[in-house]
Amino acid sequence: MAESVALIDYGAGNLHSVENALRTVGARVRVTAEPDAVRAADRVVLPGVGSFAACAGGLRAIPGLVDALEERVRAGGVPFLGVCVGMQLLADRGLEHGTTAGLGWIAGEVRAIEQTDPAIKVPHMGWNDVAPTAHAGPAIEAGEAYFLHSYHFAADDPQAIAAMTDHGGGIVAAVARDNLLGVQFHPEKSQAYGLALLTRFLEWRP
C-alpha cells in the first residue's frame, strides 16, 4: 500500500492542484488539518500561497497543529516537503508585512527580492532553472520549474541550500536538511519536472 501523505489544509495553499499532482504520482493523500491525522502520516506536505504573515497566522490558528507537526516531523523524522510559502515557513522569521516568526526549522529569514535591475521583474514569475548544489541530496535534480514569489529564503547555513535559481542574482530554489525538504517553486505547476520531483519525494528515505 502506498504511504500516507498528510497534505496540510490551513487555508493558505494551492491544495487541489498539489493534491492532484501527488495522486498522479501514486501518493495516498489525506487533506487534513487534524493533529491526530498528522501524527499518523508517513509523510507531510505543507503548501502555501500568499503572504508569509497570513500563512503563519493560518497555521497557528488551528489548535494543536504546529505541535503535531513538531512531533511528527521534527521528533518523528518523517519526510517533509514545504512548497512555496510552505517552504518559507521553515525559516526563523519572515519580513513581509512586518516581522513574523516562522517554524524555525532551518535557520534564516524570508526577505523581499531586491529589484537591482529594472529589467528584472518582481514578482519572480514563470519558468526558471533549478541548479542543485552539492547539498541537494537525491530529491532535487537539475531542470526547469515554475516560480511565483516576491520574497525569498535567505538561509544562514550554506549547507542547507539544496538548489539555486537566478533572477537578477542568486535566489534559493530549494532547502534541505535531514528529513526536511522545501522548494520555492511549484511542483504542481511544473509539469514533468514537478511530477518527477514529487515521485522522488515519495521514494526519499532520509
From TrEMBL:
It catalyses: 5-[(5-phospho-1-deoxy-D-ribulos-1-ylimino)methylamino]-1-(5-phospho-beta-D-ribosyl)imidazole-4-carboxamide + L-glutamine = D-erythro-1-(imidazol-4-yl)glycerol 3-phosphate + 5-amino-1-(5-phospho-beta-D-ribosyl)imidazole-4-carboxamide + L-glutamate + H(+); L-glutamine + H2O = L-glutamate + NH4(+). It is found in: Cytoplasm. Its main location: cytoplasm. This is Imidazole glycerol phosphate synthase subunit HisH. IGPS catalyzes the conversion of PRFAR and glutamine to IGP, AICAR and glutamate. The HisH subunit catalyzes the hydrolysis of glutamine to glutamate and ammonia as part of the synthesis of IGP and AICAR. The resulting ammonia molecule is channeled to the active site of HisF. Pathway: Amino-acid biosynthesis; L-histidine biosynthesis; L-histidine from 5-phospho-alpha-D-ribose 1-diphosphate: step 5/9. Heterodimer of HisH and HisF. The lineage of its organism: Bacteria, Pseudomonadati, Pseudomonadota, Alphaproteobacteria, Sphingomonadales. It comes from the Bacteria. Its EC number is 4.3.2.10, 3.5.1.2. The active site is at C84, H186, E188. It comes from Pelagerythrobacter marinus. Residues 7-191 form the Glutamine amidotransferase domain. Keywords: Amino-acid biosynthesis, Cytoplasm, Glutamine amidotransferase, Histidine biosynthesis, Hydrolase, Lyase.
